[in-house]
Amino acid sequence: MADLPRKAARRTARLAALPLGYAGRSAVGLGKRLGGAPAEAVMTEIQQRTAEQLFRTLGELKGGAMKFGQALSVLEAALPEEMAAPYREQLTKLQDAAPPMPTATVREALARELGPDWQEQLVWLDGAPTAAASIGQVHKGRWHDGREVAVKVQYPGAGEALRADLRQLSRVARTLGPLFPGLDVKPLVAEMIERTEEELDYRLEAEAQQAFHEAFVDDPDLTVPAVVAFGETVLITEWLDSASSLAAVIKDGTQAERDHYGELLVRFLFASPARTGMLHADPHPGNFRVIPGPDGEPGRLGVLDYGAVARLPGRQLPRAMGDLIRRCATGDAEQVVAGLRQEGFIKEKITLDGQALIDYLAPFVEPTQVERFRFSRAWMRAQFERMNDPKGPSYAIAVRINLPPSYLLIHRTWIGGIGILSQLEAEAPFKALLTEHLPGFADSEGATAG
After folding, report:
1. 183 occurs within a structural domain
2. pTM of the model
3. Would you call 300 helix, strand, or coil by DSSP?
4. 331 DSSP assignment
5. 214 within domain boundaries
6. Taking residues 266-293, what's their average pLDDT?
7. What's the half-sphere exposure (Cβ side, CA atoms, 13 Å) at 163?
């Protein structure tokens, strides 16, 4: 499929059909069960076919549809295993691939953004794309000074498609619930809508990526490509020589690779705010590239895609965040309630049990209570099930707690990072990394390394 579908009616119809498709397959499945087919076999078949339709549709439409699918993909580890297994292959495909747009369209964009003499600067351009994202695709090229570069070009009509997709996904979010039991997708879509205009402007992305490049240019373990040239819909950066992403490590990596790259992922996410004043807020495996060391040993981690970043007040993560996590770990229920209320998580006139609140926050706190914590699908699944059990105390907290706007991207990034670590089944010195990089976590005075 070469062209990005741009007619709103057509895209809307395809997205609206997703829950209808699930309902239809469920009806067929009921018929099979009445006919004597085992319930487990019927459900597996329904989930497999639903996953294929859902993620094929999201991938082909690109835009907000594909972005929504990528956001869901990092939470795959939270799904019950009987559901995660048939989804896994389709989720992984979404993280790294999508159908290409014509080379002629790419050249038209380059001429429009870089000027009619663009070929004097970009002296060679590979006609086939090397990667695809939700609103653009990447080609390999060569700059006039000899540097190999990555040329990212936004799909024509991507802005229109992104806005229309997210509006429609917002309308059907609740009906998509059966596809991902326990996941409340409506707030996820709402947060994406808030960030739409920023992600469409590659000039803002270039500014953010260059800041990250300068902050990590001397880091022995982490690398961010430098920006070479940019326009509103074109971004050219230095080429990152990597044959695979964290998706490959999740699928086939050794335990040493899983632990190594998991630790680097945590360090990048928490070191970035102090170095740049920003948080990389699009953590899905395709954005983290593996750069093997000598003799195939685990090496550096390259980080791409800076369209979604949180520009943090005070150029750091909120000090209250580290302080509250530390107080949760020590069981200081009274101070946890007071701190969350002060930060706006607990609205006026809402009363919450302190110990139940600490239990609810366990996924954020438990990894900080040991020197090295082993993330796993089983652990994340258990946390997820506990938090989404309507009969449990954590569910009662979940429906009454508020997420302030200033914490939206921080929360999404934290959950996304935990999702990737759980897919990796990685062990990491989480406590030490937070002690070094998270303001407020180290001690009662909030003293911490920057």
Report:
1. no
2. 0.78
3. strand
4. T
5. no
6. 93
7. 7
